[in-house]
C-alpha cells in the first residue's frame, strides 16, 4: 500500500508541474482573498492579452450522474472581461474509478455547445448566466451519458 500511495503522489506532482508549465493557474478556494485576486487577474489577462482560459465551473472532479452546482468564479471572470462563454461538456469518466484513481479502457465524448455571450452584462446578471449555462450543460451531460450506455 505504501508503494501505491507514493506513486500516486508522485504522479499528482508530475501532472501539477506539467500544468503549471502550460500556464495553468490554480485557485485556492479555501482562501477567498487569494481566489478573488486570481479571478480579477484572469479577467485583466483576457482583456490585455486576448487570452483564453479554461475553467471547470463545478470546481472539482466527480463521478456523479448530474453536474455539481457551479461555482461563481468563472462567471465573474466572463462578465468582468465581457468575454463569451464557450461551454464544453465531457461525458462521465466511466473508465476511471474515482475512489482508487485507476484507469481502465473506455471512451470520452466531448460536446461543444453554442456560445453564451456576456457583452453588456453586469454582475447583476450573474445568477441568470450561471443558470443558463448549468441547464444547457447538464442537459448535454445527461444526453452524452445516456448515449454511452
From TrEMBL:
EC class = transferase
GO MF annotations, alphabetized: 1-acylglycerol-3-phosphate O-acyltransferase activity
EC number(s) recorded for this UniProt protein: 2.3.1.51
Q: Which species does this protein come from?
A: Rhynocoris fuscipes
Task: Spell out the Pfam families in the cross-references.
Answer: Acyltransferase
This protein's pathway = Phospholipid metabolism; CDP-diacylglycerol biosynthesis; CDP-diacylglycerol from sn-glycerol 3-phosphate: step 2/3
Keywords annotated in UniProt: Acyltransferase, Membrane, Transferase, Transmembrane, Transmembrane helix
Transmembrane regions: 9-27
Q: Where is the Phospholipid/glycerol acyltransferase domain?
A: 1-93
**Is Transmembrane included in the keywords of this UniProt record?**
yes
UniProt-listed GO biological process terms? phosphatidic acid biosynthetic process
Under the cellular component aspect of Gene Ontology, which terms does the record hold?
Answer: endoplasmic reticulum
Per its record, how is this protein called by name? 1-acylglycerol-3-phosphate O-acyltransferase
